[in-house]
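Proteins fold reproducibly. Next comes an illustrative record:
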Amino acid sequence: MLMYFFQMFPEIAMIFFALMHVWKKEQKYAHILAMSVLLVFLGVLLKKLMSYTNLSDYILRRPVGAFGCNGDSQASCENEVAMPSIHSMLAGYYTVKFNSWLFIFIALSRLGKKENPFFYHSKSGCHTVPQITVGFCIGSFLAKVI
C-alpha cells in the first residue's frame, strides 16, 4: 500500500494542492500546483530529448528488470528512457519549497532493493541513482529560481 502511494505521488500531490487552493484561497498553492504541472511537462520533455543522446543505459534507461513503473501498468519498462526521474524532480522542488527533507523518501522509493533495502518500488526499481540525483537537483534548482 505504501509503495502505491509513492507510485501515485505526482497525481496525489497535484490533487492536494488544487484542493488546498480551493479550500484556503491562497495563491501559494496555485503557484505550487502550476509548478508541479510544469515540472511533469518538463520531465517528459527532457526524457524525450535524452532519448537522442548516446549516454550509457545505466544513466539513460530504466534498470534491467524494471517492471510496473507507469501507474497501474504491470508490464516491463526496462527499455524506457528514465532520465531524469520526474518523481525526484517533484521531490526536490517540494523539499526546497517546504524546507523539509521528508520528500527525499519519495525520490529514494524509486530505487531498487539493492540501492535502497528499506523501501523500494520493486526488486529492480524504476530508476538508477544518477536519474534520481539529476531529477532532484533540477527540481531543487527550479524551486530556488522560480
Notes: Residues 2-145 form one domain. Helices lie at 2-7, 9-24, 27-50, 57-60, 86-98, 104-108, 129-145. The chain has a mean pLDDT of 89.
